[in-house]
Design brief:
Order of helices and strands of chain A: HHHEEHHHHH
Number of domains of chain A: 1
Strand order of the largest sheet of chain B: 6-7-8-3-9-10
Number of strands of chain A: 2
Oligomer: heterodimer
Number of helices of chain B: 21
Helix content of chain A: 55-70%
Structural class of chain B: alpha/beta
Helix content of chain B: 25-40%
Number of strands of chain B: 19
CATH architecture of the largest domain in chain B: 3-Layer(aba) Sandwich
Mean pLDDT of chain B: 88
CATH superfamily of the largest domain in chain B: P-loop containing nucleotide triphosphate hydrolases
CATH topology of the largest domain in chain B: Rossmann fold
Number of domains of chain B: 2
Mean pLDDT of chain A: 82
Structural class of chain A: mainly alpha
Strand order of the largest sheet of chain A: 1-2
Distance between the termini of chain B: 57 Å
Radius of gyration of chain B: 24 Å
Radius of gyration of chain A: 24 Å
Number of helices of chain A: 8
Chain lengths: 248, 537
């Protein structure tokens, strides 16, 4: 597949985020997550940033669990079918109105999970846009004002995968020294040192290659908006229109 | 083109003067080689040329550096980008984009070059450096040699007047190094490009250099013709050591020159008797080893044996599977098929003390093994791990390199010293097999001969063996008993060093090229054969 315009997936995912919030339905949110997962799995390729989606999904699930647990434990229970009754934690007088523990109802659990799922889908859509777009290409279509962030973006996107590679290399070397469970500190120090040295190298390289010297930047290949971009973007718009008319 | 007037340099938080009162000028179309031991300031000198030092590093610069009439004090390094192309020691840490084409145009886009001009220049560079088949490839999938060519290409695409290269061949196999250097040589002649190049392995570059800057290490530096500098310098390629040992009238710099001067040696020298090492039993055996990463096969069906008392060198082009084989021997990489035993242990099962006592491994970056805050702590940790008398590791280190202060942070050691520390830590466990991955990368000649001595002494103890993966032909000639040659994951040759190295000119050491068809690899070999003669008379 020819690479799309760097803004396409971002516009698409913003449209979808709006639909998810508007629809306010767990089923729809789950469908969107599944759809995004399929698209990322199929088209993200094998770049350092392609893994962002799976990372964002994990982050989302973590948030979902934390939310569900706190939502059930703290606050006013919604009346309904009782699942389990927990002892109520005695709280001092000045915390009146807050309750920890008590009756856990099915309704309360389901409503927390539903809200959580919508948050997960927003995070996942954001992750999908990151996964599907090269940050370096993105840099080129952004206006000159954010240009200063360029160095930071390039260093961040190239040092993260480097960090992962160095981590496994150093850990392996430690194992070979007969140190099966190396302490965190003993790996973190050399790792940070190396990451810092590499980032400085990269910044020096960008500097000596004329980065940021000219305010105007030319483009070797014009970044074109093609039919495929229109198709992806209009699919997002179509969903947006559909959800809007259904929920209106 | 480049003019240093009375340049002195001191880094912040350091009391040592890197350069002092240095003045020289480099003309257009000159190729100048910068030599010096590690840590003497070669990289600093190179980075002074485009102002990265001190603009990027800090430090006090006295005197003035001008490039094509522009003083580097007045402009930022980026504003010299159209004039100077600079390629750092480790090209992979300087890449800014994802694909080959994007990397090539990065500088031009930054400087707002017109798209038509860019397109023309990119095609030129793709052809010149034979990068055309790679143009749409992701940079992370390129081999070391390809990355080096790309880094040079991205510098050349700006049509700079000056190209600055910091150890451009240290990660490359002999053939890839030859390719890169001959391209640069051609540019000097065709386009009158000015090239400043720092390199440890003089044997690779000496033939191309017009002048040499020799940095002594105490801030002093001299610049002169190669013949003059190399007449007395301690840093010299094997061919110069040969000229000195044979007491030739002139220092020959090319194989051709020295061959002309040594006809009598080739005629009169006697063959050295073959020293047969007594090999007792198998130390390491590899049977039918195969590893693949996805679609890429790293090793296919490799069989190899290493005997006790042997030093075996593993050679081959970049990406031939050397590191994969070493890693499976030391037991960090599982084989897909086949089996390996190291002193009758399957290496994957080795743990803790037994591992340390069986196999010692020095990775490509020796600093991976080190994590303490000082040399003394590092040695104490090794003493504790191996339950040996405290101070034993440090005294071992003292034997290897006498001058290291125990309070130094490992990071502040020179490459050679760091390697010695890692070696001391590993050797303190008295392993039976020692495995080294590219140990001479970035090492100067002095550290290299020290390493050779250490490894020879190690292998001379009963029941020890050494396996070393390297591109360094001269190291192999001095050190190895046997060479295993890998190509695309297969063993293509396995035999005595002499036979393997003499079989192909690309992998022959300099002395062997001079002395062909006589079968001598090193200066020592030649001198021994001459001694025999005088002994007989």
């Amino acid at each position: 597949m020819k690479s799309l315009h760097p803004l396409t997936w971002w516009l698409w995912s913003i449209a979808l985020i709006v639909t998810v919030i508007r629809a306010n339905s767990a089923l729809y949110a789950a469908l969107v997550i599944a759809g995004a997962a399929f698209i990322v799995w199929r088209w993200a390729g094998n770049f350092p940033w392609s893994k962002s989606f799976w990372f964002s999904l994990r982050l989302g699930i973590f948030i979902l669990i934390v939310r569900a647990v706190t939502g059930v434990l703290i606050g006013v229970p919604i009346p309904g079918t009782k699942i389990v009754e927990l002892p109520i934690l005695p709280l001092p007088d000045w915390m009146a109105g807050i309750r920890i523990g008590g009756v856990v109802t099915q309704e309360r659990l389901i409503s927390s999970l539903q809200e959580g799922l919508i948050i997960v889908s927003v995070i996942a859509l954001f992750g999908a846009a990151v996964s599907l777009t090269s940050p370096h290409k993105m840099l080129r279509v952004l206006p000159v004002i954010v240009y200063e962030f360029g160095v930071a973006i390039v260093i961040a996107t190239s040092s993260l995968p480097q960090l992962v590679a160095s981590y496994s290399r150093i850990k392996r070397a430690r194992v070979l020294r007969g140190d099966e469970k190396p302490k965190f500190k003993s790996i973190a120090l050399p790792l940070l040192e190396e990451a810092l040295a590499k980032s400085l190298d990269l910044a020096a390289a960008m500097d000596s290659r004329g980065y940021g010297v000219s305010r105007v930047r030319s483009r070797y290949r014009p970044i074109m908006w093609r039919t495929a971009d229109t198709a992806v973007f209009s699919s997002g718009l179509f969903l947006l229109g559909l959800v809007w008319s259904v929920t209106a | 083109m480049i003019k240093f007037s009375n340049v002195s340099l001191v880094y912040p938080t350091s009391t040592q003067t890197i350069l002092e009162g240095l003045s020289f000028s480099i003309e257009e179309g000159e190729m100048v080689l910068v030599i010096g031991s590690t840590g003497t300031g070669k990289s600093s000198l190179l980075r002074l040329i485009n102002g990265l030092v001190p603009h990027h590093t800090g430090g006090i610069l006295a005197g003035d550096v001008t490039v094509d009439g522009i003083s580097t004090q007045l402009v930022r390094p980026g504003e010299l980008a159209h004039l100077i192309g600079i390629v750092g020691q480790n090209p992979s840490s300087g890449f800014v984009t994802d694909t080959v084409e994007e990397e090539l145009v990065f500088s031009m886009e930054s400087l707002n070059v017109a798209p038509e001009a860019m397109r023309k220049r990119v095609e030129e560079i793709l052809d010149l450096l034979a990068l055309a088949p790679l143009r749409n490839r992701a940079i992370s999938t390129l081999s070391g040699g390809e990355q080096q060519r790309l880094a040079i290409g991205s510098a050349l695409v700006m049509h700079p007047k000056i190209l600055v290269l910091d150890e451009p061949t240290s990660a490359l196999d002999p053939i890839a190094a030859e390719e890169v250097l001959s391209i640069i040589h051609r540019l000097v002649h065709d386009l009158s490009l000015t090239v400043v190049i720092a390199e440890h392995r003089l044997e690779r570059v000496i033939g191309f250099a017009d002048r040499i800057i020799h940095i002594a290490g105490d801030g002093q530096a001299q610049i002169d013709l190669p013949e003059k500098i190399l007449k007395s310098s301690a840093i010299a390629p094997p061919i110069v050591h040969l000229s000195r040992a044979l007491k030739l009238d002139q220092v020959g710099l090319s194989v051709r020159d020295v061959r002309r001067m040594t006809e009598d040696v080739r005629r009169d020298g006697k063959d050295n008797p073959l020293v047969e090492k007594v090999l007792t039993s198998t130390a390491i055996s590899v049977k039918g080893a195969a590893i693949s990463y996805g679609a890429h096969t790293a090793l296919k069906n490799v069989d190899a044996l290493v005997m006790e008392g042997e030093i075996v060198a593993l050679m081959g082009r970049n990406g031939a599977g050397k590191s994969s084989l070493l890693q499976s021997i030391v037991g960090v990489k599982e084989l897909d098929r086949g089996e390996i035993s190291v002193f009758a242990h399957p290496p994957m099962s080795l743990k803790g003390a037994l591992r340390r006592a069986t196999v010692g491994y020095i990775p490509q970056e020796p600093s991976d093994l080190l994590y303490a805050q000082s040399v003394a702590q590092e040695c104490a940790q090794a003493d504790k791990d191996n339950e040996i008398t405290s101070g034993a590791t440090y005294s071992l280190l003292q034997e290897l390199v006498p001058s290291i202060s125990p309070a130094t942070h490992p990071r502040d050691l020179s490459e050679g010293q760091r390697l010695a520390l890692a070696l001391a830590v590993v050797l303190s466990a008295q392993p039976r097999a020692l495995i080294l991955d590219e140990p001479t990368r970035g090492l100067d000649y002095q550290s290299k001969s020290l390493l050779i001595e250490i490894l020879k002494n190690f292998a001379a103890q009963p029941g020890k063996s050494v396996v070393i993966a390297t591109h360094d032909v001269e190291l192999v000639a001095e050190l190895a008993d046997r060479v295993i040659f890998l190509s695309e994951g297969e063993v293509v040759a396995d035999g005595p060093t002499l036979d393997i190295l003499l079989a192909s000119p690309a992998f022959a050491p300099q002395v062997a090229k001079v002395m062909a068809p006589r079968r001598w690899l090193t200066v020592n070999d030649v001198m021994r054969s001459l001694d025999q003669e005088t002994g007989l008379q």
